[in-house]
Design goal:
The chain is of the alpha+beta class. It has helices at about 5-10, 45-50, 90-100, 130-145, 185-195, 200-225, 235-245, 250-265, 270-290, 310-315, 320-325, 360; strands at about 20-30, 35-40, 55-60, 60-65, 70-85, 105-110, 115-125, 160, 165, 170-175, 175-180, 295, 300. It is built from twelve helices and 13 strands. Strand 9 and strand 10 (about 170-175) form a beta hairpin. The protein is globular and about 55 Å long.
Length: about 375
C-alpha cells in the first residue's frame, strides 16, 4: 500500500473512531508555543488545512488532556527519530534495523533535518500498557545507537512534524520519503523489537512493578480527587511518590512536565503561579531518582528499598477499604504485579491545567 495523498497516511494512525482521547497539535513560535486538541478521526482533515503552515507538529499518541504519560489514552504508532548526517543515513539506518530483526517502518517523514520512522499497529497500545510502549521505544532507541537518535524517542508524548507543513529552519516542506505502507500486527512487531533488546525477567518485573505503582497512585488520586486538596501537607509526598515511579518511563524533560502537572492538579493552579513552591523538590527528584534515591531538605530517601511501598501506604494513609475497592495490591505490598496492568484506566480527571487554544486560532497563517 502506497499513499497517493498525505491524508491517506494520517488516516492510518487512528483508524477507529469512538476511542477515548484526543491528539495534540503543537505549533512553535519564536520563543513559545500554542497547542490545541483534535479528535483522532479529524487528523486527516486537519492535515489539509495545515498544509503550507510553519512549525506544526502532532502527537502520535492520544491523550485525555495535556500530552503527558499520566494522561495517555492510546497509541497505534511507534517511532524513531534520527538526524540526517550523511546522504545515506536513512539507508544505513534501515539496514541496521533489518540486521536486528526489526522490519521496515510503515512510513518515514523527513523535514530537511531529521528522519522520523513510524510503525503503525493494527491494534493500539492502551493507557494501562504504557510500560510496554516504553520498552518498545527503548529498544528502538538502542537499536539506532550510532545514528544519534533523539532522546525524545523515549517519551510517550512524542511529537512529529505534520506532513505538508513547513520547517522554519530549512524553509522546506515536510514530506514522506518512504511509504512502505504496511500495518503490523502488534504481537509480531512487539516480538521483533523486544527480541533485539534482550531483556531479563528481573528487568521486566521491575518495570511492571513501577508501572503498577504509577497506575495505582493514579487510581488513588482519582478516587480522592476532591478530598486531596484538603491535605496540602501531603502535596510534596504525592510528587515524590509519583516521581519515584515515573522516572523509569520518562526522560528528565518529560518527567519535569509530569511533575509540574501533578503540582498544578494538587494546587488547582497554573504552574507559573506555584513554581517557586515546588521547583527545588522537582529538580531534586529528577536529578537522582533514576539512581535509586531522592535527597531533599536534608532527608535521604532510598526509593528502591523493600519498605518503599510501605512508606507510600503509610504516608498517604491508604486504608484497607481503599486497597480492596481500588485494587491497590502493589501499594498494599500484597503483590509485585498490579491488577491495573490488565485493565484500562478510566480516570475522568486529566492531570494538569489545560491551555489549549481554539483550532481556528491555531491554524491562522500567523499565530
Amino acid at each position: 500500500m502506497n499513499f497517493a495523498r498525505p491524508e491517506e497516511f494520517f488516516r492510518m494512525f487512528h483508524p477507529r473512531d469512538g476511542q477515548a482521547g484526543n491528539l495534540v497539535l503543537h505549533r512553535r513560535r519564536q520563543k513559545s508555543y500554542v497547542q490545541t486538541q483534535i479528535s483522532t478521526i479529524d487528523l486527516a482533515k486537519i492535515s489539509r488545512q495545515a498544509c503550507g503552515l510553519e512549525e506544526i507538529y502532532f502527537s502520535t499518541a492520544a491523550f485525555s488532556g495535556q500530552p503527558l504519560l499520566l494522561n495517555f489514552s492510546h497509541s497505534n504508532c511507534l517511532h524513531l527519530q534520527v538526524p540526517k548526517v550523511e546522504w545515506n543515513t536513512y539507508i544505513l539506518l534501515t539496514l541496521r534495523l533489518e540486521n536486528k530483526g526489526i522490519p521496515l517502518p510503515t512510513a518515514t517523514v523527513f523535514d530537511g533535518e531529521k528522519y522520523t520512522l513510524l510503525w503503525i499497529l493494527e491494534t493500539p497500545i492502551k493507557n494501562h500498557e504504557f510500560y510496554i510502549y516504553t520498552l518498545l521505544q527503548q529498544a528502538l532507541h538502542e537499536a539506532a545507537i550510532g545514528f544519534n537518535p533523539e532522546k525524545c524517542n523515549l517519551d510517550i508524548a512524542f511529537l512529529v512534524r505534520m506532513v505538508g507543513s513547513v520547517n522554519r529552519n530549512t524553509r522546506k516542506h515536510v514530506g514522506l520519503v518512504n511509504d512502505y505502507g504496511k500495518v503490523y500486527s502488534r504481537s509480531y512487531l512487539e516480538g521483533a523489537i523486544l527480541k533485539s533488546k534482550q531483556l531479563t525477567a528481573i528487568e521486566v518485573l521491575n518495570l511492571q512493578t513501577q508501572a503498577g505503582i504509577t497506575l495505582e497512585l493514579m487510581s488513588l488520586i482519582g478516587d480522592r480527587w476532591f478530598s486531596t486538596a484538603q491535605n496540602p501537607e501531603l502535596f510534596y509526598d504525592w510528587l515524590i511518590f509519583f516521581g519515584s515511579s515515573l522516572c523509569n518511563f520518562c526522560t528528565p524533560e518529560q518527567l519535569f512536565k509530569e511533575l509540574c502537572a501533578i503540582a498544578e492538579s494538587l494546587e488547582a493552579n497554573q504552574w507559573k503561579k506555584i513554581c517557586e513552591k515546588y521547583l527545588v523538590l522537582i529538580k531534586s527528584i529528577i536529578e537522582t531518582a533514576r539512581l535509586g534515591y531522592i535527597n531533599f531538605e536534608g532527608i535521604h530517601l532510598s526509593i528502591n528499598e523493600p519498605n518503599w511501598r510501605d512508606m507510600i501506604k503509610g504516608k498517604l494513609a491508604i486504608t484497607s477499604a481503599e486497597q480492596e475497592h481500588l485494587g491497590l495490591q502493589v501499594l498494599g505490598n500484597q503483590s509485585s504485579i498490579s491488577p491495573h496492568l490488565h485493565r484500562i484506566n478510566k480516570s475522568v480527571h486529566p492531570i494538569g491545567t489545560t491551555e489549549f487554544v481554539p483550532l481556528g486560532r491555531f491554524l491562522l497563517q500567523k499565530v
